Amino acid sequence: KASDDTVIPPLHLVLIEEPEVHLHTQVQQVFIRQAHKILRNHVDLGGGQNFVTQMVVSTHSSHIAHECEFDSLRYFRRLPGSQQKIPTSCVVNLANVFGADPETKRFVTRYLRVTHCDLFFADAAVLIEGPAERILVPKFVSYHPEFEKLSESYITWLEIGGSHAHKLRGLIEKIGLTTLVITDIDSCDATGSSAPPVRGAGCTTRNATLRTWWPVINGLDALLNKAENEKVKAYADERFSVRVAYQSPMQVTFKGASSEAISYTLEDAIVMANLNLFETLPGTGLIAKFRAAINDSADLGALSGALVAALKGGGKAEFALDLLEIEDPLSLKPPAYIREGLLWLADQLEHKQVELGLAQSAGEVGTDATAMPVEISV
């Protein structure tokens, strides 16, 4: 604490650049919570208004950003190059990102602090349904060459179900972050009860992301008929896009007959995409149940019912972990809806890198082509 005879300058403006360079993660969080209080720790300052102290911090640390209220955050967003191939930046005020919706703001704030995700600093975000997707989707990216671009990019993976993913909409739209939402179709029958997806039966979806964010559809038939390119919501003015990926119809050949299959969850979608593998794959739990269902079912309809019945016993996370032990990771193919979504994301990042790379080669940007800081002002 300064002594009483210390001369207080009329202007209290403190600029701090990337304090995380010198601080441990936990210390970063304590620092940003206490720094402004310390600056006001004088008998002539305190809560007085004669001398107003402002502290401005630039940071690439998610730990620091998540400790601050959205009202204090200013996000520096890099915009792709226009016809002149010159990217620019804009400053986004996050104070009003959630408008007058305090519940959503409270949920997102708590979620970001708990997960410590790098939403503010990533090249793209992938919102996934649950623990099985969190385990397996990055595995597909790591082992399959067609997703190599994703392995080279900075992607933040957020495990947040379809009933909550749409709550991040305001923040994602505000910062203009390219996002892929991998979610379940969550089909319901005509009475509103959860049920396997069936065409022409008046089924709907209870997935809030699909109903309220994109493609803003309630009817199951309309969702199943949606073309892949129509699952993309393009924000033309903001120059970024969001895409949803959910279980879609696929042609499957089983016991010599080919017909349409509509999966209910990630797990049965994986089985349908890898019938030859699961027919002989050794293992217990769900793997054993799926192996028996394939061998005992007379046709695809019976198999679909048997897979749904097997899933009622749970064990999805264990199933995902068991698949990590497959000797040849390339033998496990991702379901079509996940593959299409990941390929779209890879293409988006490729275009983004080209736009920024052209300008960088012309001397318009520095070596850090994508990462942008967050400024905290208190």
Report on the structure:
With 378 residues, this protein is α/β, with parallel strands linked by helices. It is 37% helix and 18% strand. It has 14 helices and 14 strands. A 5-stranded mixed sheet has the order 1-2-14-3-4. A 5-stranded mixed sheet has the order 6-5-7-11-10. α4 runs parallel beside α13 and α11 packs antiparallel against α12. About 3% of the residues have low confidence.
List its salient traits.
single chain; 378 residues; alpha/beta; 14 strands
Mean pLDDT: 89
Instruction: Please give the largest β-sheet.
Output: 5 strands, mixed
* Computed structural class: alpha/beta
User: What percentage of amino acids are in beta strands?
Assistant: 15-25%
- Tell how many strands the DSSP assignment holds: 14
Taking strands numbered 1, 2, ... along the chain, how are they ordered across the largest sheet? 1-2-14-3-4
Short description:
The chain has 378 residues and is of the alpha/beta class.
Map the helices and strands:
Elements: E1 12-17, H1 25-39, E2 53-59, H2 62-66, E3 73-79, E4 88-93, H3 102-115, E5 124-128, H4 131-143, H5 148-151, E6 155-159, H6 169-175, E7 179-182, E8 187-188, E9 204-205, H7 208-212, H8 220-224, E10 232-235, E11 240-245, E12 250-254, E13 257-261, H9 266-273, H10 275-280, H11 285-296, H12 300-311, H13 316-323, H14 336-361, E14 374-377
Parallel strand pairs: 1-2, 5-6, 5-7, 7-11
Antiparallel strand pairs: 2-14, 3-4, 3-14, 8-9, 10-11, 12-13
Helix pairs in contact: 4-13, 11-12
